[in-house]
Amino acid sequence: MAVQTVTAPVLTESVNLVRPLRPRLKSAATALLRITPSSHHTNDLREQNSRNPACRLPEEILCKIFMFIASDEPERQSNGCSWVNVSYVCSNWRRIALGCQDLWGFIDFSHPRWTSVTLRRAKLIPLSIKAAVNNRNIIDLRRTLQLAHRIEEIHLKSSAQDIRPLLETLAHPNPALKSLIIDVDVVAGTSGNVYDPLSFPTTGPPLSNLKYLELRGTPFYLLSTRCSSLTYLHLRDLPRSERPARDRFLSMLEKLPDLQYLTLDRTFPIMPLDSVVPDTARRITLPHLRAITLTGSVQEVADTLNCLLLPPSTRLICALERLHDLKENIWKLTQAIAVHSWAAAEVMPVETLVITGREEETRYMKNNEPNPDFRQSLRIRAYRPDAECGGAAFDLTVGPDPGITRDAVMITTLGAVWKALAITHVHTVALQNVDIVTQKSWTQFLRALPSLRVLDISGHAPSGLLWALLLNARSHADGDSDAQRLLVPRLTDVYLHGVDCSSGGFMVSQTRNINSHTDLDDSRFLDVFSTCFKERGQFNVKLRSLSITRCEYVLKRIIDDLRTRIAHVVWDSRGVAKERDMDASNPARYRDLWISGRPPVKHYFRLQTVMQF
Fold first, then answer.
1. Given Cys at both, which of 37, 93, 459, 528 links 433, Cβ 3.0 to 4.6 Å?
2. Coiled coil where (predicted)?
């Protein structure tokens, strides 16, 4: 039968549709095999299969489907469902599967029978070893890793106990190996040595084909001097006993001249006891590094960055998961960020900032007690205009830390990082669910954005930002009308998306907390917005456009007022409300911070009070 020709777009679309269905396809194939037809039904089944669209798919598509199924994740290969079953569904599937030689390079370790079948059919083609290590397949795995002619890919998932018999073999991999991923699940809280001391040499000829290495929970010695051609190195959750000293770690990185992507996820070298990196301390250069990802405490991230000299074009991605040492180490972190950011600004400055807030659970429980399960985090991303960057040039996530739930920590970190970044050329700021920053902090932040032209707001309403702009304009109202004295004088376009325009803001508290969640501003967000740009209009600083989409409680009266002062106003009718729909005694609305009931609150009609003076 002639094979139907399939164009590349159709093939790609079909593969993308099938990708999430890989487990279902394997299960369906197994279910079909459980039905053992009698001989007099065989012809009927063949006739039925000939009419089944799944059995008549073009060969190119079926080959792609089979390849996706065979390349499934290791943990899914351990459920006893072999991908080889696809070759027993119907005669057409079997013919195509047997003719797809590359398919049999994925050795199946779910059962010794399938291991033997796939190894025999693979012949001399490059092998891909993906398996969840257990006591049923460890002998076959060890034999295959030692004796196979050519292995190009290894991806093993294991416990610390099961991986031990394979460590010596993995330390001397096949010379043809291109990718090595070892994922070991080390029991949390394990103390002492997880692995025995190294008892065999790791020397040998360079592994010139090995480009990708990812180790999780493994001994550090699997990264040896033989891996000198690596371009991707990812180290995650190495046991404390396996982490190298700083000098040894830096010496190893120096032997990776082609490294382009480096990830240290809760895996950092052991620093000297003083934890201080003086100016004369050893630093190394990674000339081709394109991205570095660090996840850990403030001190761990700061000390690691201060050991490296990064090219200006390197993407810096950090996650501060533990903030207990913020006060002592934030200066070291911001110093490292500033050095890299200002060096990169000379090559290509940052043009877009995106700040995203996230909260898990509510702040308070019953009886208005603080909720111990409440978590919050803040993410700061800075983008350069180059499309080849592949993501944010700077990406910092602060939290969530189970021990830190105060807004003050988030705002302090944001302020320190803000000062370190070179953002004088930023023309767009996007705020997503950021409402904890107060007017005082926003005033300082906005002074660093003289080129800001576009403001994109979604989620929680940032009342502090609008109050900073409004009070800044009010403070100059009685003096000369010099627009250059205003914050962000070039702001021309504002986009509101999914904002509750009737929401009120938090007031500044006199206690240790930055915001008070019991002293609330009853001035509605859109009212403050309208007044703010009315005041700025006196300095001939006007908005060019305003877009309001999917927002709630947008009063028609305010929209009509804004249209008289803004050239282009666009909004949808979904959230438009009438004045009578608002509670006159308490016009502002507040998002659900409390599970049941609210504590006694003090409300301030701040806008009304300010405009009276």
1. 459
2. none
